[in-house]
Amino acid sequence: MPRPIEALIHVPNLAHNLARARACAPDAQVWAVVKANAYGHGIENVYEGLRAADGFALLDLDEAQRIRALGWRGPILLLEGCFETRDLELCSRLKLWHAVHCEQQIDWLAMHKTHEPHRVFLKLNSGMNRLGFAPQAFRAAWTRLNALPQVDEISLMTHFSDADALRFGKDGIQHQLDIFKQVCADLPGERTVSNSAATLRHTARVASDWVRAGIMTYGGVPDYPEHGPEHWDLRPGMTLRSKIIGVQHLQPGDTVGYGSSFTASQAMRIGIVACGYADGYPRHVPSGSPILVDGQRTTTVGRVSMDMLAVDLTALPASASFDSEVTLWGRGPKAQVLPIDEVAKAAGTIGYELMCALAKRVPVTIEPMV
Ligand SMILES: *Cc1c(COP(=O)(O)O)cnc(C)c1O
User: Fold this and answer.
1) Ligand 1 contact via 222 beta carbon (within 6 Å)
2) pTM score of the predicted model
3) What is the pLDDT of residue 7?
4) Which of 149, 235, 262, 300 lies at a C-alpha separation of 20 to 30 Å from 172?
C-alpha cells in the first residue's frame, strides 16, 4: 500500500472558477494563467477544465510547448516575454504572443528572422517597479516596435501591485490606472491590465480587453481574509488529503513531536497524519492551526515534521481515529471545505505559495469533468 496521501485536482471546480472570471469581466477575453505548472496543479491536469479560456498565459517556454502538445491552437502569452534571443524562434514556430518589457527584447526582435510578424504585449511599469518600460520611455518603445517588420499587433499591458487591498490607506489601483490611461491614451491596441484581484474587486472601473485570471481560477482568494471563497463564489481547485496512521493517548505534561514544542495540559487523544513538509504542507504551520478529520474541524498539535504531523482528536467522536480521512486543505467529506488560504494564513503565507509547493512525491488524482 502506498502512503495514503494524495492531491485531488477538481477539474469541474476549475471550470466553474474560470466562468466566474468571465462573469466578472463579461466584455473581456480571459487568459487562464497557468504559470508555475498551473500554480502547482499540473498543466496537463487542469487543461480540460480551462480549455474554455480564450488563451493561456504563462512564463516558461517549456510550458507553452506542453500546452501546444495538448492540442491548443489558440492564443498563448509569455507574460515575461523572451529570456534570450533564440526564444524568438520558438515564438515564431509555436505562434506565441509575448510581452516586451525592456529594450533588449526589442533589440532581439529587430535581429529576428521570421516570415510571420509577432503579436507583442508592450509592458508599462506603472508603479510596481518590477518589469516594464517607465512611463517616459514607453512611447519611444512603442514607436520603435511599431517600425519593426517583425512586429504585427502591439497590445498594451501593465500589472497592479495592490489590487487586493488598499495602498497607503487609499484605493489600491487608481494611481497605476491613471498612469496607464495617461501614457496609453491615444495608442491603438488591446489592453490587458487586471489580475484576479482586480477582476474580482475592480472590474467595473478597469476597461480591459483581456483579464489575466490566475489564483481565482484555482479557487484561491487574492484578498483573503477580507473575503473568503464563498464571498466570491470560488471553489477549491485542489484538495490535499491523507489519513491517520497512528493514535496516541497523552497525559498532562506529555509533549508532542520535535522540540517538544507542545505540552499537553490535560489528557488528550491525538492522531498522527501521513503528511509533512516534504509533501508541501508548510513547516511553519503552528500548533493550533485548522485541519479537518472526517470532515470535522480540529487543530494541529506540535511541530510539522518531514512526513508526519499530529492532530487533536480529543473533542471528536471516537470514530475519528486510525484510518480517518484528514483534509489538509480543500474539500473534505460531508462537503466541508477548509480554504487553502486559511491554512496559508496560519503559516504566515498566501494560498499561492502552498499550491505551488505541492511536492512531486504526492500522487495526484484528477476529478474529471462531468
Ligand atoms: C501571475 C500573473 C498574473 C495572475 O495573477 P493572479 O493574482 O494569480 O491572478 C497576472 N499577470 C501577470 C503579469 C502575472 O505574472
Assistant:
1) yes
2) 0.96
3) 98
4) 235
The alpha carbon of 128 and the centre of ligand 1 are apart by a number of angstroms equal to 13
3-state secondary structure of 91: helix
To test the ligand 1 pocket, which listed residue (20, 29, 33, 201) has its Cβ within 8 A of the most ligand atoms? 33
Class of domain 12-220: alpha beta
Instruction: Give the Å distance between the CA of 92 and the centre of ligand 1.
Output: 24
Helix/strand/coil for 363? coil
Mean pLDDT score across all residues of the chain: 97
Whether the Cβ atoms of residue 120 and residue 155 lie closer than 8 Å to each other: yes
Residue ranges matching CATH 2.40.37.10 in the chain: 238-367
147-168 residue pLDDT tens: 999 999 999 999 999 999 999 9
Q: 124 alpha carbon to ligand 1 midpoint, in Å?
A: 15
Cα–Cα distance between 195 and 223 in angstroms, integer?
12
Candidates 195, 216, 218, 221: which one to mutate for ligand 1, based on the most atoms within 8 Å of Cβ? 195
Cell numbers for 203, please give them: 472590474
**CATH architecture label of 238-367:** Beta Barrel (2.40)
Report which ligand 1 atom has the smallest distance to the Cα of 31. 10
Count of all residues that appear for the chain in the document: 370
**pLDDT band with cut points at 50, 70 and 90 for residue 1:** confident
Whether 159 is in the pocket of ligand 1, judged by its Cβ within 6 Å, is: yes
Give the integer Cα–Cα distance in Å for 79 and 39. 15
Q: Whose CA is nearest to atom 14 of ligand 1?
A: 79
Residue pLDDT, tens place only, 255-306: 999 999 999 999 999 999 999 999 999 999 999 999 999 999 999 999 999 9
Distance CA 175, CA 74 (A): 33
**Which ranges in the chain are annotated with CATH 3.20.20.10?**
12-220
Q: Give yes or no for residue 237 CB within 6 A of ligand 1.
A: no
